[in-house]
Every structure is written in C-alpha cells, then in structure tokens.
Amino acid sequence: MHDHIAQYFQGERREMFAIIIGSLLLGALVVALVLSARDAFSKAMAATVLLSAALLAGTAVSLLVRDSRLSAHLASATTSTDAARSIADERSRIEGVISKYPYYRYAAAGLGVLALVALLASRREWAHGVAAGLLLLVTAQVLIDHYSERRAQRYVEQLASVKSRE
C-alpha cells in the first residue's frame, strides 16, 4: 500500500511542478507579447493570463505544502495498528476530490462560453484579449483536471483493492 500512496503523491508533485513551470513560461510569453505589441489586446490578454497563472501556481504551491505532510502521515499510518482506518479515511478523501471534477468542468465550460461571447459580442481589442486569456485558462484547466482525475481514480481503486483484500 505504501507504494500506491507514494506513487499517487509523486504524480501529484510532478503535476504541481509542471503547473508552476507552465505558469511561469506562459507569464513570460505574455509579458514579451505586451512589450512587443503594446496594444489593448496584448495588455488584456496578459492581465488575464497573469492572473490565471498566479491562481494556478498559488494553488499548486499550497497543494505541494499540504501533500508533503499528508503523504508522510499516510505512509506512517499504513504501518500502524490503525492502518485500515487511515486507508478508509484516505479513500473517502479521494472520493470527495473525484466528486468535484464535474463542477470543475462546468466552471471551465462557463468560462469558455464567456470567452466566446466576448469574442462574438464585442469588437473591442481588450475584450478579445481577455477572451484569448480565458481560453488559455480553460485549456490548461481541462488538461490539468483530465490527468489529475485519472490519477485520483486509479488511486481510489488501489485503496479499494486493499480494503477488499482484508
């Protein structure tokens, strides 16, 4: 069981570092675009992307901090006399995480619709820049959630298999 826990949290750690690095790279690209173009589109897009990147990276950092404590606690708990309860609690936690993914998809779809409406309803450059930034956020969120959800589903199946073997 310890291997499953370590594998799950290593995957989450890699994902969080990818989010942080991707946020930094995308931030640098939009700043370069603003410095190059200096127009309303690039400024609005940069503001939207930088805000989104800060939110994504901030979430990633907070998860890295939480995960290091949580994985260490779980690793020690699985070797204790209360291992079954710890595994059941972890399974319940992950099932709760999995239950939220549909809401994340609804939020991403809502932002995507908002971006498309801004593209269609406005002729203003800044509105198109915000729309482009939102579409980048939606794309990033769909990618992140796709792999995160798959990893969480595998992990909950592994936790369930331990329970069924007892």
Molecular structure report:
This protein is mainly α. The chain has one domain. The protein has five helices and no strands. Helix 1 runs antiparallel to helix 2 and helix 3 runs antiparallel to helix 5. The chain is elongated and about 65 Å long. It starts with a helix and ends with a helix.
Poorly predicted residue ranges: none
Task: Indicate the radius of gyration in whole angstroms.
Answer: 20 Å
Biggest sheet layout: none
Q: Which sequence of SSEs, written as H and E, runs from N to C? A: HHHHH
- Termini Cα gap: 12 Å
Strand content: under 5%
Shape type: elongated
Number of domains: 1
Name the descriptors.
5 helices, elongated, single chain, mainly alpha, 166 residues
Write the layout of secondary structure elements.
Layout: H1 2-37, H2 40-77, H3 83-99, H4 101-121, H5 125-165
Summarize the structure.
By secondary structure, this protein is mainly alpha-helical. 92% of the residues lie in helices and 0% in strands.
